[in-house]
Amino acid sequence: MGTKEELIHAVTELEEEKSYSLVKALLDEGVNPKEVIDMLRKGVEIVGERFNKKEYFLTELVMAGEIFQQSAKILEAVMKDDTKMSEKLGVVVVGTVKGDVHDIGKNIFVTLLQAAGFEVHDLGVDIDAEKFINKVKETKADIVAYSGLLTVALESMKQTTEALKTAGLRDKLKIIIGGLPVDEMWMKEAGADAYTDNAFNGVKIVTKWLKGG
Ligand code: B12
User: Fold this and answer.
1) What atom in ligand 1 is closest to the CA of residue 153?
2) Distance between CA 11 and CA 5 in Å, rounded?
3) Looking at ligand 1, which atom is closest to the CA of residue 145?
4) What is the pLDDT of residues 140-168, one digit of tens each?
5) How far is the C-alpha of 146 from the C-alpha of 36, rounded, in Å?
6) Which residue stretches of the chain are H helix?
7) What residues contact residue 116 under an 8 Å CB cut-off, 6+ apart?
8) What are the pocket residues of ligand 1 if the criterion is a CB atom closer than 6 Å to any ligand atom?
9) Domain segments of the chain: what residues?
10) What distance in angstroms lies between residue 158's CA and the mean position of ligand 1's atoms?
11) Whose CA is nearest to atom 49 of ligand 1?
12) Which ligand 1 atom is the nearest neighbour of the CA of 195?
């Protein structure tokens, strides 16, 4: 037997195995997978708050992301094809830009976006402009997110935005950039609409874009 509070607690305390068995127990009890996702989201949200208050560190954040991703796999296996995990708050295409292979921060951002209810298309690392463009067209994305940790990533971000402009897609999109070195100067140079070096703030920004206000 599992209770909803127990699952939220297991996630926030980063009890990996317990989280998975509770997910399974709740499903066995007939709890709707969407409700289970909401509990996982709540857990990840609390971990995020603790990270921002510096009560938790990067290891905990990565661990919470892992618990969320693995639990989502358990849920996906029992959900019907027509029931999407995401509530479709919006569609986001994410990637680490060309020349850069750092992805730990990007992966955290992706998990948090999924936990918040976005449909996320993660392209991976070392992604050139063409791949971003193709994915934006294919998914009719609302938002494009570039990650970059290397100084050279700025040039790639710039090129990607230019290519989105040339393809006539830029005006339909919002662009957010993130990663260790990004700042206002990067945002302007990269032709983006927002920047942050904090994945939680990133989720707040894109949520605001789509919900308005
Ligand atoms: C781990 C690491 C690696 C790993 C990467 C593993 C992986 N899977 O990512 C490996 C060993 C592969 C690596 C390789 C290299 N690295 Co390295 N690496 C690091 C290191 C130590 C940590 C980076 C990290 O993961 N931080 C933790 C994450 C969570 O932080 P983050 O990425 O900033 O993400 C947070 C936010 O920024 C945000 N975020 C991130 N992306 C996005 C995107 C969006 C849209 C949003 C909203 C938010 C967001 O969310 C996260 C949580 O809040 C840094 C040093 C450092 N202290 O940062 C050097 C560092 C980034 N690396 C560096 C270098 C030079 C390299 C190499 C060139 C080394 C070499 N000579 O081979 C290669 C480059 C390979 C390449 N082409 O990319 C330099 C970059 C210097 C520069 N100015 O360009 C750094 C700064 C080290 C240094 N001081 O010299 N590296």
Assistant:
1) 84
2) 10
3) 45
4) 999 999 999 999 999 999 999 999 999 99
5) 30
6) 4-12, 16-28, 33-52, 58-78, 104-116, 129-139, 153-166, 184-189, 199-211
7) 41, 89, 203, 207
8) 58, 99-106, 108-109, 145, 147, 149-151, 176-180, 196-199, 202
9) 4-78, 91-211
10) 19
11) 178
12) 47
pLDDT digits (tens, 9 = 90+) for 59-116: 999 999 899 989 988 887 777 554 555 567 899 999 999 999 999 889 989 988 988 8
Tens-place pLDDT, residues 24-62: 999 999 898 878 988 998 898 899 899 989 999 999 999
User: CATH class for domain 91-211?
Assistant: alpha beta
CATH code of the domain occupying 4-78: 1.10.1240.10
Tell the residue nearest (CA) to atom 21 of ligand 1: 102
Both tokens assigned to 156: 């790639």
Spatial CA neighbour of 192 closest among 141, 166, 157: 157
